[in-house]
Amino acid sequence: MQSVHRALDLLEILAAAGGRLPMAELAARAQLPTPTVHRLLRTMVERGYLRQLPDRSYALGFRLVPLGARANAMVGANASGVLHDLVAELGETANLAVLSGDQAEYVAQAPSRYAMRMFTEVGRRVDLHSTGVGKALLAQLDDDDEALGIIRSRGLPRYTAHTVGTETALRAELRRIRERGFALDEQEQEIGVRCVAIALDPASAPGVAVSVSGPTARMTDELVERAVGLLRAAASRLAGDLRD
To answer: How confident is the prediction along the chain (244 residues), in pLDDT tens digits per residue?
Structure first.
C-alpha cells in the first residue's frame, strides 16, 4: 500500500508541476530517497503512465489520456448540464469539487456570464478550511475529530483576515454548516470573493460538493438564499448521475 501511495504522490507532483520534472526534483518534492523514486518511476514508465524524455527528466505518459477521458465522461459530462443550469439561474460561476486527500480538487466548472467573474482552473486543489466546498466536505463527516485529523497535516494557514484560523473556530463552523445545510466562504480564500456550497448525499456520492461563487458585490444575502435551494436540487441531480 505504501508503494501505491508513493506512486500516486509522484503522479500528482508531476501534474502540479506542469507534467515534467527531473528525478532529483521529484525525489526532493516527494521527500523520498532517490533509489525508491527511481524504482517507482521505472515501473510507471514500463506501464506507460510516465515517459522518460531525452534529457532524462520524466513526463506524464500517454496511458493516462484514456483514463482521464473516461473519468471526464463519467463526471464532467454529467456535471456540465447541471452547472450550466446554475449559471443560467444565478449568473455566477458554478463548480464541482471532490475531496482529494487533505484538500479539495475542482473537477468541473461552468463560468459566470459576467465579464468580471470567478475562475478556478479544473484540477486546482485548495485547502479545506478556507473554502466553501472544503468546509462542506469536512462538515459531511459526522466526527469533528476525523475532520480535524484530515486538515492537521496542512494546518490552518490564514489566507485573509477572515480565514478560520483555529481548531476551536473550525469546530464551531462545522456545527453551523450541519445545522443550516450549506457552507459559506466569506472572503476566506480570497478577498472580494464569496461562495456558497453544498455537499452531495454521502450515500450516493461521498466526498463531492457543488458550489456557486462570485464577487461579494453580486453575491448578496438574497442571491445566496436563492442559490441554496438551487444547489440542493443540483446536488440531488448530480448524486443521481454519479450513482448511476
So the answer is: 888 989 988 998 888 788 899 999 999 999 999 999 999 999 999 999 999 998 999 999 988 878 776 666 666 566 888 999 999 999 999 999 988 888 898 988 999 988 777 777 787 889 999 999 999 999 998 778 888 888 888 889 999 999 999 999 999 999 999 999 999 999 999 999 999 999 999 888 889 999 999 999 999 999 999 999 999 999 999 888 776 5
On whether residue 12 sits in a domain, the answer given is yes
Q: Are residues 7 and 120 in the same domain?
A: no
> Residue 80: is it exposed, middle or buried by C-beta count within 10 angstroms (0-12/13-18/19+)?
middle
Are residue 27 and residue 130 in the same domain, yes or no?
no
The single-letter code of the amino acid at 208 is V
User: Residue 95 class from Cβ within 10 Å (0-12 exposed, 13-18 middle, 19+ buried)?
Assistant: buried
Domain range enclosing 133: 75-243
CB 144 within 8 A of CB 151: no
Do the beta carbons of residue 138 and residue 122 sit within 8 Å?
no
Same domain, 6 and 83: no
DSSP state of 143: -
**70 domain-assigned:** no
Looking at the 3D structure of the chain, how many domains does it have? 2
